[in-house]
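Subject: Protein record for review, amino acid sequence with backbone structure tokens
Why sent: The fold of this protein is of interest and is recorded here as tokens.
Enclosed: The protein record, placed directly beneath this head.
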Amino acid sequence: MKRFLPLIVLLLGAAFVASTLFPHKAKSEFDLDGFSRLPVLVNGRIKPLDTVARTTLLTTQGRQRVVTPEGTTITPTEWLLNVCFTPADADKIRSFEIVHPDVLALVNLTPEDGDGKKRFSFSQLAPSVAELERQARLASEVDEKERSKFQKALLTLYFNLITYQKLQYSLTLPDSPDFLTELTQFQANLGKAVEAAKARTANQPYDAEILKAVATARTRFETLEQQGSLLAIPPRDPTHPEAWRKTGQALVDTFETGELAPAALVYAGLSYTWRTNEPAKFNEIIRLYREQLAKNFSPQLTKSDVESRFNTAEPFYISTYLYVLAFLLGVFSWLRWPDTFGKSAFYLLLLAWLLTTGGIITRMWLESRPPVTNLYSSALGVGWVVVTLCLVLEIIYKNAIGSVAAGMLGFATLIIAHHLALSSGDTMEMMRAVLDSNFWLGTHVVTITIGYGATFLAGFLAFIYIFRGVFTRSLDKSTADALTRMVYGIVCFATLFSLVGTILGGIWADQSWGRFWGWDPKENGALIIVLWNAIILHCRWGGLVKTRGLMALAVFGNIVTSWSWFGVNMLGVGLHSYGFMDSTFWALIAFVASQIIVIAIALVPLEKWKSFRAATS
């Protein structure tokens, strides 16, 4: 059994991954999958409605799972359909996260009024919208750095409410009981209105009611244009794929073209069939519309389909489970059955690496950009680099240290990425102008990310050395020597890539901003990483530190890298500043404190280390 256990673990892991890669059979008679894959243009990027639903839920309620007032769990797509087509039902769903007690008091609610945790419905918040708007206006006048936690929480809630209401106005008019009939009536009246307007100009009898009805329709369409957020109407000319329009804008344009946009009628038809519970007609409209889109927008439709499938598969979320299991199996291998558990951990680690690699490549293809474009993708990149290096270490040393380090760091970086996604929503947003430039940017960011990952890996290998040495008897001489070689080699690797990445960043800055170096906080942070790794090597070469000192210095490298990675972004100054984040700040402080504690443990006299006591007893 021991002999086949690694293979069994691999097959079970592969089956688990495979189960997420194939679409699940829908529980609804409606073609929810087809609707979720319809493309729209949002924030400069064409994306499926599935992404719109998921990213909106992440920002408004901190999760993608939706629970109805009846306790039924529905998909993000069903939630979006309710928001757009049956807003009265959507308003009852607790979709807004509120945790600040003063914000709850402002809207006259208590935690008991929520879902048992911290989420509330639009219907519960509606009576307080006017007061929220007034308070939000006052809070927005305060400088961002000086806002209190209450003001920040208030503005977040107000922004989420605006986002929600804009979604309701994106595809149809939420107050229309039958938008399809309203559009067809408008289309029938438009020609008559033109004749009535000509007759009025010629001082001849005309139908005033027709003109009034069309004028009312225009006002309603203009409201739809002003309040909506999604550009859901594809352009008439497929050679201009960027010219997508809002539904309201397309309907207002009808007064000039004299023809309703077919896509506007499609969404009106979907609204009607969703409200009247006619899945067969709903599905037929989806099928015909997708066939029409495929004629002129096949590349966009293909990317939309892949992105929707990518969202459902959740490769990075699945990888977190695999990393945890690999970590546990690696630790167990130090206690018993080293070959069996060690191989099992390595196989799971390799599977998780393949899954994350596929996820990163898919993101690159969807964005048509380098792998690292924002903080979220940098977390993915750092984790990928670390796991890749650990796989190499494990192939060389076969002692499960690489598997344990990869499991721990792979899981940690994906958790960091997850929390960054909560604040950003769409993690494949358009690149900031400061980052969207030339070839040197891509090479700089990728290289410096490798340097980040390698420096972190050296620190966490040192972490393993310290904890195994101090708290266990498992740090024998061969293991200690292997860890020392690992840390030293990784620090050399990190120094090279950090140095090259920093130089490439200077070349990019020279071509983009006209200067090679400007002492920007982010530039200083990158330089500090290079200098700290160089200090470690010089201390080692000069005999200033022995193995224990090398490990303590490597752990401090985690502090240096974390501040260079996240800390400089929170200063609010410099060309690389992307905003201050309270939650990240305190998480960073906690991380730094933990690393200082680890360094203090490393400084415990060697005779107090369990492994060294065992070796001398």
